[in-house]
Every structure is written in C-alpha cells, then in structure tokens.
Amino acid sequence: MEPHLSFRGRRALVTGAGKGIGRAVAVALSGAGARVTALSRTAADLESLTRECPGIETLCLDLADWEAVEAAVGAAGPFELLVNNAAVAELQSFLEVTRSALQRSLDVNFGAVLHVSQIVARQMIAQGLPGAIVNVSSQASKRALRDHAVYCSTKSALDMLSKVMAMELGPHKIRVNTVNPTVVMTDMGRINWSDPQKSAAMINRIPLGKFAEVDDVVNSILFLLSDKSAMTTGSSLMIDGGFLVS
C-alpha cells in the first residue's frame, strides 16, 4: 500500500475477510484510517483478525443466508467503501458439475455480491454518500480453464454485473470496478500451486513469469477505492502478469 493513500474517517465493509486477500485488505484499510467491518462465515478467523488488528469490527455470516445478511449488514452500515471478496471455487469438469456445486457458486460468487451491494448502495444513496465498490473477480472470467466451468462462468457474470452496477449507480456518485487476478500466493495458493509441474503450465503463459502476491491485489483494490481513481468506473483491472495477452 502506498503510504499517501488515506481512508481516514471512511467506513468500509470487506467480505471474505477471514483469510487471504480479504483479510489483507481489511488490515490495510484499517491501517490507512478506515473504520473497517470484516465479514466471514468462520468465527475463528474473525477472532484471530481482531487479535491482529483490534480496531476492526466483525460480522460472522454465511452470505448465502439472505435474511441474515439483510439484517446484519443493514444494521452495521452505512458504508462508503465495499470490497466483495468472498468466493468459492468448486472445481469440477464440465461433465461432472453437480447441482449443489453450481448452486453454492451462484449463491456466493454472484448472488451474494449483488445482494450485499444492494444493501450497501441503498444506504449510500439514502445518506447522500458518494462511494466505491470493488468486486474481486479473476482472470478466469476472461479465459476458459479446465475444470473451472462453474467458476469461470460465475466470474464472467460478476464482471457484467459490475458494469451494470457502474452504469446505474454512477449518477449517485458510486463507482464500481473489478480486480481480476491470476493465481495469488495466499497461504492456500502456495499449497495448491507448490508443485512445479502443475504451476509451470500456468506460469509459462504469464509474460512476467510469476504468480501474483497478495499485496499486488491489495494495492490495486485500494487504488480503486481511493480518490486516486475518481474517474474510473465499470472497469476490470487485470492483475495477471500479462496472462491474457499471451
């Protein structure tokens, strides 16, 4: 994070904030002066986050439970900044996709983003607050990947949802953008991609020759939330080391 980015006095909600990118975004926003609410369905992750960063408030929710989300997020707001980071990756070949995997992916990767954004944006509008929303998408929204039929499809849907949100919320001074990372070296990413044989095929298609680090994504999210990107909305910021140009 660039030290001159400040979110002092602004309220932010980060979903999927228990681990990985979401957790790092929550900590970075808090460090830059924002009042942060971190949302996760895993209580233990939220407890360790508040020990690490005591100023962060928490919400323990399953985003697929619309009624609980409506009540809890509505009561916690209003927010001026929103990062929709929560996602699931149900990896199955096309012929093996199950209804449960499809439904869970649609609920979290698409439906929850729509729903949480509705709640937050309605409050922004009611309060007359300008705001910024960043949806965490993926390079998989732009390129087919084996065994990612559902994941690629939900991330593509997320990109288009973000564009429609940008169009409709722009008149209310609410900006909406996505970040689209390649493989990111979270703790889970390092485990899943530590095998050189598995990672080589992907890295060989990335001109920069490496995967993304968590800070690469966090810095891009903070830029899109900040006034430094005041004229940017409806855009997808690729954090892929050039994967899509190859």
TrEMBL record:
The keyword Protein transport does not apply. InterPro entries: L-xylulose/Carbonyl_redctase, NAD(P)-bd_dom_sf, Sc_DH/Rdtase_CS, SDR_fam. GO terms for biological process: glucose metabolic process; xylulose metabolic process. Homotetramer. Pfam families: adh_short_C2. Keywords: NADP, Oxidoreductase. This is DER reductase. Belongs to the short-chain dehydrogenases/reductases (SDR) family. GO terms for molecular function: carbonyl reductase (NADPH) activity; L-xylulose reductase (NADPH) activity. PROSITE patterns: ADH_SHORT. The keyword Oxidoreductase applies. Gene3D superfamilies: NAD(P)-binding Rossmann-like Domain (3.40.50.720).
